[in-house]
Design a protein that fits this description.
about 30% strand; mainly beta; four-stranded mixed beta sheet; 4 helices; single chain; 22 strands
């Protein structure tokens, strides 16, 4: 004697379970408010449990036998009449999962050519100019890291993406970074100063709707540690190309100082060409423009600012 649904299952569906188990188990709860005294619950899950709540994990038999999807429901039986009512259904799907995608915008000081663009000398982005890409809109590789919002803010995960000439970049994290979690965003690049977001950023499936924009204001970076481009945009400082402790080009020490200056001077002297760390303007050649920019940042001793 089936009747219309008595009540809902919470949470409502459809629900996706990650096949790697990262969001398992899932708990479904039967609301039997208004049911007769002594009413019994029977779920359609394998084994037909008669409890108010059931738990489901990726790889459960119901999902395996039905191609990774199953519509869960329950019945409430009246102990006097033996009539029963059937609940609504909640569909659970087992799917491959990844973490949230971070959409960001940033400019590299040395690559900037004006008007919101990093199209080096009108020839395309750095990767295109130096032969690393067939796309003239590819500026360079940049790493975005999700750092814990709790002191001392350890690294949770890093992903490298291609920064476009318009400053846009996006990376997708794995499940190490949780949807809806808050993280400081750390930006690193082979010859720019490490830069952190001013505050923790919520990363979720909807982050795409509000990309984190380092270029819109100086205060978007922690400690306001950005370079003024004098057209309403801001950029990450260029010039951290070597480590003062080891005097090694390509190892960064989070400060733009005399060691960087000396290594740049050597590269300018021999007119170094190609995709090299000393080329902080990204045009494939180390020359006076790189030297002048480095000289200015060394003068002000640009240093990493972080929480």
């Amino acid at each position: 004697n089936p009747n219309p649904p008595l009540a809902a299952i919470t949470p409502a569906g459809p629900i996706n379970l990650c096949s790697d188990g990262s969001n398992s188990p899932l708990t479904l709860t039967a609301d039997i408010t208004g049911a007769p005294l002594g009413a019994t619950i029977v779920w359609n899950q394998d084994g037909n449990p008669s409890t108010p709540s059931i738990t489901i994990s990726s790889g459960d038999i119901d999902l395996l036998l039905n191609g990774g999807t199953f519509a869960y429901s329950f019945q409430v039986a009246d102990p006097v009449t033996n009539c029963y009512r059937t609940s609504n259904t909640v569909t659970v799907n087992e799917v491959p999962c990844s973490g949230p995608t971070l959409y960001a915008k940033l400019f590299l000081e040395g690559y900037y050519s004006g008007s919101g663009d990093m199209n080096t000398s009108g020839s395309g982005g750095c990767l295109f100019i130096t032969g690393g890409s067939l796309n003239p809109l590819d500026a360079d590789n940049v790493t975005l890291s999700a750092m814990s919002s709790t002191f001392p803010h350890p690294l949770i995960e890093s992903q490298t993406g291609i920064l476009k000439t318009d400053g846009s970049i996006n990376v997708t994290f794995t499940n190490a970074v949780s949807n809806g979690g808050s993280y400081y965003i750390k930006v690193t690049h082979r010859n720019a100063l490490e830069t952190w977001s001013a505050a923790p950023v919520v990363l979720s499936a909807t982050t795409a709707l509000s990309p984190y924009d380092f270029s819109s204001a100086q205060t978007q970076a922690y400690g306001s540690n950005l370079s003024d481009l004098f057209d309403g945009n801001w950029a990450i400082f260029s010039g951290d190309i070597s480590d003062a402790g080891t005097a090694t080009v390509g190892i960064q020490d989070a400060i733009i100082e005399s060691q960087d200056y000396g290594d740049m001077e050597n590269a300018v002297y021999v007119t170094l060409l190609g995709y090299v760390t000393e080329d902080i303007t990204g045009d494939g050649i180390v020359e006076s423009a790189d030297y002048g920019l480095m000289e200015n940042n060394v003068y002000f001793t640009r240093v990493l600012q972080r929480p």
